[in-house]
Amino acid sequence: MVDSLALENEYVLPTYEKFPFVLDRGEGCWVWDEEGNKYLDLYGGHAVAAIGHSPAEITAAITKQSAKLLFYSNLVYLKVRAEAAKALVDFCGEKGSQVFFCNSGAEANENAMRIARCVTGKAKIVAAEGGFHGRTAGAVAATGYKYRKNMAGLGCDIVHVPFGDLSSAETALKDAAAFLLEPIQSVQGCTTATGEYLNGLAALCKQNGSLLIYDEVQTGLGRVGAPSARHAFGARPDLQTFAKALASGVPAGAVLATPEVSAKVKPGALGSTFGGGPLASVAISATIKAIVDKKLTENAAEMEELIRATFNFPQIKEIRGKGLLLGLVLDRPSKPIRDALLKKKIIVGGADDIHVIRLLPPLTVGPAEIGLLRGALEEIFSAETVAA
Ligand SMILES: Cc1ncc(COP(=O)(O)O)c(C=O)c1O
Q: Against a cut of 0.70, is the pTM above it?
């Protein structure tokens, strides 16, 4: 048998620390490795598998579409693209909102910043320190210090202010095109904005003729127990960016603009060959339909309640985040606990805050799977207590 782990290590640049197994297939909240071991995936394939792994509705949609028309670019109209845009507007936007499709979260953020610059005629972008927005030049320049250090010459005219601090935002926004932030800073450790902060930013942006951009690559599409952070926090951004769960694993990104901003975007301002292609489009429509039909937004809110009510371990000091974008803040570094969970065949995430276990499970997760995590944590924590 081919040793796929060795083969990948030989041929793929070692840019990621990987889980030590070769994944073969997935279904719902579960994935199987090549040796047939079954894992409970509470990391959701990096927050992508919102409607579960390899969902039948996506497989059916992309199979049917690929036999009909695999690709044509934005130079033609496509019924499936129109439907995907309508689905995203109906779920996360408002009447008159419009969509720009691209291929990833980084690209969505690049394009949102570009829209803000085109619309306002200003160059400077203000970003909240600690955010994560992607690895392309503009997106990484807006990202927290850990990721942008040693990257001289980004030249993207981006300044950072502390997350949650309205008075530094006020100063920085004076001559800015936009303020970009993740309403919940996921990679950082699920640091969560308050509604007051976001409403304050919205007011400051309005006052200064700047746009408010929410990076909803993780918070969007039902994960926070509401269609998007815009709905969960009650402050209206001018632009929202989406990716990850948007097409359930078919690469896709999107920028959603309010009617006022949409009205100011002109032909030629943006472009993408693959963005809004037929395969991504049918996957986007099927994903949003599944989230709505299966009431996964409501389930995310219920599962958050269950976790908050039952994860009452003294070792968990705080639970950050919303819905099924949660950070369990431990009283110690989380890595040994994450490793112990992996030995029990449960996949969870880490964060830049080394004390945090990040949960980003499929939104289809139920009480039984949450109970498995709780039971595993109980065993791990009590074994430690005995050992100590
Ligand atoms: C909040 C957020 N924004 C943007 C990105 C970048 O997305 P992509 O990797 O699709 O470029 C990520 C990726 O983890 C993310 O978490």
A: yes
